[in-house]
Amino acid sequence: DAGVTQSPTHLIKTRGQQVTLRCSPKSGHDTVSWYQQALGQGPQFIFQYYEEEERQRGNFPDRFSGHQFPNYSSELNVNALLLGDSALYLCASSFLAGGNTGELFFGEGSRLTVL
Amino acid sequence: GNSVTQMEGPVTLSEEAFLTINCTYTATGYPSLFWYVQYPGEGLQLLLKATKADDKGSNKGFEATYRKETTSFHLEKGSVQVSDSAVYFCALASAGGTSYGKLTFGQGTILTVHP
Question: How many CB pairs (< 8 A) connect A and B?
Fold first, then answer.
């Protein structure tokens, strides 16, 4: 049973560019959340998708956007990249429709470096 | 808003030593509390959780008790092993609904256990 998978694992971009990160949730899960983890810090919540809609959003600018597809996979898009966007981006999935246990399953993340 | 504060790290211990990692929180209402662990080269994974006051979460020899009067959720283990070396994150989620997808994390504590 595959867990949460993310791609790409590493990528380098320059300021002003745009990036798309992808996430496939754990089999049977219907909810995807995205987190940004700066070096030496805890993850910070970006947003959560359920039933193809953004359900909750953290304190991130509109440059950060996302999408959830009918197969529950998700994308995170960041426009007009800034140096400060360099971080590990984590995807987490859960099974909301089946009763909320509070456990999130995390992928290993996508390491973004902005030069 | 919600916040989580963890003890400053890193923490270095010898095998079989007693471990305590302090965690305090600020939140409205009755949040659920979690400890997540990140082993080298792996994604975050849930270690234990507690969903109401005085609950004790436990797993793999680790324990933490939800203390509402002191707004704390300290992690303890009686005898650590080299394999426990990892980064430990305390986290909380507001209760109910889709809120479990929105975790607020502490900054993480690096634990290194020497033989």
Answer: 77
Interatomic CA distance for residues B1 and B102, integer angstroms: 13
| Distances from the Cα of A47 to the Cα of A28, A44, A62, B12, B78, angstroms | 20, 10, 11, 35, 37
pLDDT digits (tens, 9 = 90+) for B1-38: 889 999 878 999 999 999 999 999 999 888 889 999 99
Nearest CA in chain A to B47: A103
Place of tokens 């992928």: A107
Residue with tokens 């995170």: A76
Residue A51 C-alpha, separation from nearest chain B C-alpha, in angstroms = 12
Question: Sign of dihedral through CA atoms A79, A83, A84, A85?
Answer: positive
**Which pLDDT band holds residue B100 (cuts at 50, 70, 90)?**
low
Mean pLDDT of chain B: 92
Task: Give me the residue from B96, B98, B105 closest to A42, CB to CB.
Answer: B105
Which amino acid is located at A49 in the chain?
Y
CB contacts, 8 Å: B107 with chain A: 40-42
- Contact by Cβ (8 Å): B1, B55: no
The mean pLDDT value for A34-56 works out to 93
pLDDT, tens digit (0-9, with 9 covering 90-100), for A71-113: 999 999 999 999 999 999 999 998 876 555 667 899 999 999 9
Residue A80, both tokens: 């007009």
Sign of CA dihedral A19, A72, A67, B39: negative
Cβ neighbours of B108 in A, within 8 Å: 40-42
First to last CA, chain A: 37
